[in-house]
Amino acid sequence: MAPMTFADLPAFDELKDKKCFWPSEPGSREEGLGFSRNAARHEIKTIPNYEGIAWDDEWHFNPQAGSQWDGFRHFSTLMPDGKRVFHGGTTSEEILDPKSDRIGIGHWAQQGIAARGFLIDFVSWAEERGIAVDGLSGQMISLDDVYEIAKECNITLKAGDMFFLRCGFTKTWESMSMAQKLQYRQNTADKKHAHSGLEQSERVVRFLWDNHIVAVAGDGVSFEVRPNHDFEWDLHNFLLAGWGVPIGEMFNLEDLAALCKRLGRWTFFVTSSPLNHPRGVASPPNCMALF
User: Is the Cβ–Cβ distance between 236 and 70 less than 8 Å?
Assistant: First the structure.
């Protein structure tokens, strides 16, 4: 992702309604998620000789267990010689080297992320048509669906946009019992999980490239549909390992979708400040949507 200056940014006309929204969960989910990602641990700490006067706290968390940006160190792609490399040809050895910060997420933090965003609210669109939505069913959202929703919402894409997709994961997850959530966790360990999301196809890859989308994010666990429908067009390969385009996952878009519907507009200005750690793999989005 090439650095941008203010002179490079498109003219924004999104700041009209004096509304702002934080479209992310506060840290990782308390119950943990799949793929053996544990819940966050938080502890209030005393300061020696300052007991009762001042306090510290300590956090231990996996950014991938809540709303997060997948950094470029997260996912590799398979090369013709059978080796796997990350963005820019980075190797796992470089990522594990404590002296190397190559493609670490801390580089994003130096300038942050700022762009116009648009929301494709598949959940509302589907429910209006009597289509059942389940964020953990492997339901595929087609590019034709995206085009139709954008047309209905009068969304005109612009170069440099961030693409937000509400596929229904948050709504599904919050309706599940703890037993169901633990079963999902086991399903990921057994590689029997399913995530609803965007279709995998050459059309989608060309759509993202031709429209100069600079980041994608959604409420889903993987943004794209899982299990893979077409390994050749796996979006993690293209976006993270190939182009260097961030993927945001498990953003809480429920209230954002409601605000968009109330205002009658599905575009907004987005700011994001990733963690400033040079070797980071992922980061909470620390994201705001401004209207």
Answer: yes
